[in-house]
């Protein structure tokens, strides 16, 4: 394998690694106290890798349309795995994964149509986003960083609650029960802030891409061809 091939694979390998690590985290969070602590720490790494794969691709000069789409796929899998898991253990409302999954299907279907029809990509020079405002909300370093920080804070807080559930007897001297109640309240607030950010970043994409949603001929042709 040549050096060029290795470089082209590097960013995609990072994306695959964070997908695998997300599942490892879910396993750890269902085990004993120290495993859950390790799961919380690994959660930070998983979210960090979200930004690293794109950086590596740009740094090595191997950014591609497929790489960008695969990166988004990795984001979706990681997000959905975490939200579904935390919903299944009763830490977040079932509406949270429902909102995230529905938003993802809508936005990503639109992106797929835009790419198939005109070669439009989610980000970059060929982006389907038409307005500067939409590009700022969805693609700017500021917006993506704030959203990533929000996700890692939410997932770490939720994981920390699982740590306390498993090791309450060990930790009750450090965190009184009333403080633990405050932690639940803060976590719920952060979760819904992240939900709001997810919608705020998604709705403008639908507005800018309404041409692909409501254009009469192409969606039917695409469906017939499938």
Describe what is shown at a glance:
The protein is mainly α and 226 residues long. It has helices at residues 3-28, 33-60, 65-88, 95-118, 132-139, 141-166, 168-171, 177-208, 210-214, 217-225.
Question: Please, could you describe this protein's structure?
Answer:
This protein has ten helices and no strands. The protein is an all-alpha fold. It has a single domain, classed as Four Helix Bundle (Hemerythrin (Met), subunit A) (Up-down Bundle). The radius of gyration is 20 Å and the shape is globular.
| Number of strand elements | 0
Gross CATH architecture: Up-down Bundle
Count every helix, treating DSSP H or I runs of 4 or more residues as helices: 10
Shape field: globular
- Stretches where pLDDT is under 50 for at least 5 consecutive residues are none
Radius of gyration, whole Å:
20 Å
Ends: how far apart?
A: 36 Å
Question: What is the H/E string?
Answer: HHHHHHHHHH
Question: Into how many domains do the coordinates divide?
Answer: 1
Structural class: mainly alpha
The level of helicity is over 70%
């Amino acid at each position: 394998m040549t050096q060029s091939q290795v470089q082209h694979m590097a960013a995609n390998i990072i994306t695959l690694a964070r997908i695998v690590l997300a599942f490892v985290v879910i396993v750890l969070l269902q085990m004993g106290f120290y495993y859950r602590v390790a799961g919380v720490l690994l959660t930070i790494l998983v979210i960090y890798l979200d930004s690293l794969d794109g950086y590596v691709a740009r740094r090595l000069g191997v950014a591609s349309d497929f790489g960008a789409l695969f990166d988004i796929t990795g984001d979706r899998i990681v997000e959905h795995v975490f939200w579904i898991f935390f919903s299944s253990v009763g830490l977040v409302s079932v509406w949270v994964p429902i909102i995230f999954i529905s938003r993802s299907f809508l936005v990503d279907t639109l992106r797929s149509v835009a790419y198939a029809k005109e070669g439009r990509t989610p980000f970059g020079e060929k982006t389907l986003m038409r307005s500067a405002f939409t590009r700022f909300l969805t693609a700017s370093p500021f917006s993506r960083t704030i959203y990533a920080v929000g996700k890692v804070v939410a997932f770490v807080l939720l994981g920390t609650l699982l740590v306390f559930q498993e090791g309450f007897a060990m930790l009750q001297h450090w965190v009184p029960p009333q403080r633990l109640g405050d932690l639940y309240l803060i976590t719920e607030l952060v979760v819904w802030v992240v939900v709001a950010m997810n919608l705020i970043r998604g709705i403008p994409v639908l507005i800018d891409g309404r041409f692909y949603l409501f254009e009469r001929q192409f969606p039917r042709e695409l469906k017939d061809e499938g």
